[in-house]
Amino acid sequence: MNIELLRDFCITQKGVTEEFPFDQDTLVFKVMGKMFCLISLSNPNSCNLKCDPEKAVQLREEHPEITGAFHMNKTHWNTVRFDGTLSDMGIFEWIKDSYNLVVAGLPKKLRMELEDLEK
Questions:
Q1: Whether the model pTM is above 0.85
Q2: Which residues contact 91 (CB under 8 A, 6 or more apart)?
Q3: How far is CA 33 from CA 58, 69, 70, 87, 89, in A?
Q4: Which CATH architecture has domain 3-105?
Q5: Nearest-angstrom CA–CA distance, 31 and 17
């Protein structure tokens, strides 16, 4: 996985914006204003993804490249390192899971606005 592939995948999801809310190094992808993926521009060897708490633990046990996310709530966020044996397709699946988890948690009004958006 590289940052260009990750960015291309993230921005093709409906309602996604990319921002730098923390600093000029941390690129954050949001759906309807809520974060689902973060990556460092200076060290793009990993990303932080939102994850169901039970699945987060399972993924950490199965993959040494996945750990609790640094500076994030480790119950709900994982860091996925790209330097191991993880496939791009697997990472794309986890990005999509993160996106869907955030969408599911949006207020009904925002979910309806998202449904009305053109891709």
A1: yes
A2: 1, 6, 47, 80, 82
A3: 28, 20, 21, 28, 25
A4: Alpha-Beta Complex (3.90)
A5: 6
The answer to whether 66 and 81 are in contact (CB under 8 A) is: yes
For residue 112, give both structure tokens. Answer: 């309806």
pLDDT value at position 118?
62
Q: Average pLDDT by consecutive 10-residue portion of the chain (119 residues)?
A: 96 97 97 97 96 95 94 94 92 97 96 83
Query: Would you kindly state where each structural domain of the chain is located, as residue ranges?
Result: 3-105
Exposed (0-12), middle (13-18) or buried (19+): which is 73, by Cβ within 10 Å? exposed
